[in-house]
Amino acid sequence: MITEPPPAPESMRMRRSALDRMAVSGTAVKLPAFTDITVRISDHGGDVTAPALVSAVVDRLLRPAERPAAGAAVVDGLPMADVADGRRLHRVLFSAVWEQFVTRCDELSSSATPIVKESVTRDGVIPPEQYGSRWSFKALHTDRDAMLFSHLYGPVRGFVGGEFLLVDARALMQARELSFDDAFEWSVEPTPGSKPVLRAEYGDAATREFGINLGAPAPGQVFFVNNTYGAGILHGVTPVIADDPGRMVREYHRCSAR
């Protein structure tokens, strides 16, 4: 990690500025814990585009200053026949959520042309020139460019760990009166720009007091995170340790937009 801000795209300057403003104490409304963030597809007839389901997800993602929600959602019970079908349904679900999210989020403009991306990452075999490591980034951080993203995990086998973590940086920085430089350092990337990474000395306490360990992702679970500049939601995973290296597979399907 590096502590000095690297030459960065405008998005990183905006992330730094937004996170720094979160240090202001005594002015924020009470921030919600990561409770009631699960939305069950079975409660909506198994339809991943059901308007009530999509609205329930977006309700949990939005973080307006006066009434912030948790900033994350777990959609449970994707009715997938296999991995390929799950990824197709994930894509459909993300598109429906993004369409509503961009119209309701104060930080975004619904008139702008979005850049929507889809990818599959397989831990342990990532080309090092892409991210500087064969493994996906696991320390608590905000992503560099995406405004909203979601992950669907699978296939997964042959390892322990990989539990999904969320931390509310707003709550952490206000409670501890931390500045950006107090709380964060910059990742070292092989490509231009970096992402803010929570300093290791805060990680355990931050998760315990201002976050949640959601456990290892279950089949059919989709994790959504509001990654807008002002949301202040950090995500990461616990270390992944192969207990059966010959069988180990850890893949996740990611959808994102900015």
Automatic annotation (TrEMBL):
Organism: Micromonospora peucetia
Taxonomic path: Bacteria, Bacillati, Actinomycetota, Actinomycetes, Micromonosporales
Protein's UniProt name: Uncharacterized protein
